[in-house]
Amino acid sequence: MKNACIVEAENLFDKMPQRNTVTWNTMIRGYFQNGFFDKAMYSFNKMPERDNFSYNTVIAGLMQCGDVNNAREVFDGMVDRSVVTWNSMISGYVRNGLIDEAIRVFDNTPIRDVVSWNLVIGGLVNCQRIDLAEEYFKEMNDRDVASWTIMVSGLVRAGRIVEARELFEEMPVKDIQAWNVMTAGYVESGYLDMAEDLFQRMPVRDLNSWKQLINGLVNVQRIDEAIRKFMEMPEKCQKTWNLIILGFIRCGLIEVAHAFLEKCPYSNIVSWTNVIVGYFEIGEVRNAVKVFELIRTRDTTVWNVMIFGLGENDRGEDGIKFFIRMKESDLFPDQSTFTSVFTICSDLPSLDLGKQTHAQTIKTGLNCLIAVSNAMVTMYARCGNMQSALQEFSSMPIHDVISWNSIICGFAHHGEGKKALEMFERMRLTNVKPNHITFVGVLSASSHAGLVDQGRYYFDYMKNKCFLQPTSEHYTCVVDLLGRFGLIDEAMSFLDQIRADGVEIPPSVWGALLGACRIHKNIKVGEIAGESILEVEPSNSGVYLILAEMFLSSGRKEDAEKIWARMKGNGIKKQPGCSWIEINNSGHVFLSGDRSHTEFRRICFLLNLLSAEMGTKILKPRTATSEGNSNLF
């Protein structure tokens, strides 16, 4: 039973020619320890004879699985109760958070030992009822080390560190646990010098003593002292060393952590993985790759870190290459691997790799995991394949808020506002509560679908029914909704509402208003919106161009020239547009004004061929000159 060999134990039990109470008790205890509560109760009810230990075992087991009522029923059915029986009830009530019931049983206990007192005091400490715990502690006639240690721990948790130290000094006998509790109290309260002083006074130290102090030094970024203490440890602890390395990383000292790893013999794969994470966080992709290549034996986690880190640093294609290398190394991808790969595939020009990876998840059975399914829905939605996104969403047995957000925002992003709102209404029929991201999708969908009244309703629903504080994204969606349909004055009033809420209007909101003014030719408000953006984002080339275009369209050529002059004076240039297509499994990227594509002449020929019926020649390639490719048109 101790080794969880249940079937073997049952077979041996069934073969026994004679069984006594000890044998039955062993089976019942084993069932409870291994989680077979029904079998334990069946055996208990089948016992021909029971002793006190039988009842105590069943009470403790039922309390352990949270079946308080049945434990009470067994207790009430006992004729002879020992102090262990009463303690089992007290302990069970404490375990299940029923401290008042525990106190009631304690008060009715005819015989109490020090364990009874410690159980109640410990329960009160855990419930943060320290004053009542003190009263019970003072009533105790006989206290052991555990009694004192529980009270010291309770005072530390309550932030009464001075009183905890006074009680600690009163202890007639202190064991290593008491010293550790007091030291940990100082560490947690930020009194590192006091903790160090107490640490030096300790007659004996165990691994926890060293770990507590070193952890405290790391947390306050006293890394050098933490290393010195680590070197003094009689037995080095790998977890503590990893924590020190993590301390360096949190302080931004990634290269220092890296150097220590190469010099010291205590490093393992966790240490190296933490350094890789650190390099990725500061954008040092090359160094992260170098560290990875130094690791001889790699586990799934370090591969996942590489794939995720490369994706987060806009090196998704490299992340895919590492994914392929991982599979070639005979390591099995897990949930984190596939979610990272699907996230990368969301930003690729082709869905082929995403579909192949989807097939792999089906083969491995990981497609049943909600996180993997969510990543697939998001990937298909971002890539515009809403049919596949909806199909994957519909095949999921359960949905969480991420699942609903992915499908709602996907439909909203691709202009299918009514479908997005239909999905939201379905979501409202479930127990899943919408969050901020949900309403970004809902408000955006309302805008795309032209449902102004519904958009207003959903915004109020979010604030007043779901009690979610709007963010800049929500405000932007509402302004975009109103502006699209020419409700510029209402949009301006909405900005006043934002200010009344104590929120500074973000550039994204002004941008939505500027776009609306451009469409509806409201030059006055558009100029206000544009200048408001430029105050915060003076390098936003798009705003200059929109303002200039609006001025030109309204006959204000001089104002347009002033905008161009400001743009030129500030050294701002328009970022070229970018697009890509896939032909024969090969991606082709095009930048506006770029004539360097290898198939440029062929593209010109085909476009002119297609436009022949229009009577117009679109492109005319010229021979490259010594000045480069600038004269190709």
UniProtKB/TrEMBL annotation:
One of its GO terms (molecular function) is RNA binding. One of its GO terms (biological process) is RNA modification. The keyword Ribonucleoprotein does not apply. Coiled coil: none annotated. It comes from the Eukaryota. PPR repeats lie at residues 20-54, 82-116, 144-178, 299-333, 400-434, 471-505, 540-574. Keywords: Repeat. PANTHER family: PENTATRICOPEPTIDE REPEAT-CONTAINING PROTEIN. This is Chlororespiratory reduction 4. It comes from Acer negundo (Box elder).
